Amino acid sequence: MREAVVRGVGMTPMGRFEETSLKELAASAIDEAMKDAGVTFDDIQAVFFGNVGAGIMHGQNSIRGETVTHHMGAGVMAVNNVENACATGANAMHLGWSSVAGGQYDTVLVVGAEKLYSQDKAKSFEVFMGGMDVDFRDYGEGAGVTRSPFIDRYAKVADFLIRERGVSVENFAQVAAKAHANGALNPLAQRRTPRTVEEILAARHVLGPLTVLMCSPVGDGAAAAVITRGDLDRRNGDVQILASQLRSLPADASGPSDSHEFSAQAAWEQSGLGPEDMDFAELHDATAPGEIVSWVESGLCPAGDEVKWAETGHTTLGGQMPVNPSGGLVARGHPIGATGMAQVYEAVTQLRGGAGQRQIADARRAFVQCGGGLIKGTTAVSAAHILGI
């Protein structure tokens, strides 16, 4: 395999942009990424465009990437459209890496973009419902109307952590408070107000032990990256892709998110590195309990240490293993198709030393993981990347 590097990244703010189209959001992130990489569309051989909801939200059921590249005046290239639930952007990243590392292309553009916010919440929630097996939808009354159906799953994850691992509701609030603190330092985050544990516990109840400030918000946004060969022309600011893996849910899965375990293990094996070699991580925290369970599934945290990690600040910016310095899905936001690429944007920014007040000192390696979809209550697909300088 050839060496592949991220040469440029771009990202829009995450939030609610009713007057901005999907094309405009994507174009903004693409322009920034190409300028950062010092390339134009003449240099791009292929595009991997990740989006989930354009069909439901805007009636754009296919050729989503082509509509964006045409809008931007691009020439002839291979445009690949990618959809894989909340792992869509991460899946696009994996395909982009594969195409360069495998020798098919020298330079590609990877994009994740989503317009998810609607005053009709049921319409937004319909997009989430598409990420569940239609024959095994398991959620309670009100799911898909007043809340995302995935909240029902995370309420069960919360119950599992409380029952089996001794995690408390206060621990969930501590993890959420960390996310909001990091988001307050991220100028691109959707939620930029620090929140105390008490505020989070007192916030509007959603389901089970979950309050609204423990859950990721619905919003819009886009992020992009230029991937190119690193073995021909290494430049200052290039970030190596040390591992890129995608794994689906096995038929005999029994844990809360087994696909995360498989993608993480594959990434550790591919890179020859381990959790102890990472300086920080960006994990899939659609809710605070979701982050906690991902600590263990990724291999970063030994099972049984969840309470200690939550209570000692282990995952804060100054902790031993900072998790989600961007604010994560809870604070940065979760425009579904953009999330995986937003994680990559944060990892590259940190490794370059450009994260400002949320910068992790001496960061050289990052673990990035994003999951998506549900089959029988378990995460259907997970992508894991290891980036380094």
From TrEMBL:
InterPro entries per UniProt: Thiolase, Thiolase-like, Thiolase_C_2, Thiolase_CS, Thiolase_N
Residues forming coiled coils: none
Q: Which residues form the Thiolase C-terminal domain?
A: 261-378
Q: Which SUPFAM superfamilies match?
A: Thiolase-like
Keyword Kinase among UniProt keywords: no
Q: Which CDD domains match?
A: SCP-x_thiolase (cd00829)
* Protein name, entry field: propanoyl-CoA C-acyltransferase
Q: Which organism is it from?
A: Microbacterium ginsengiterrae
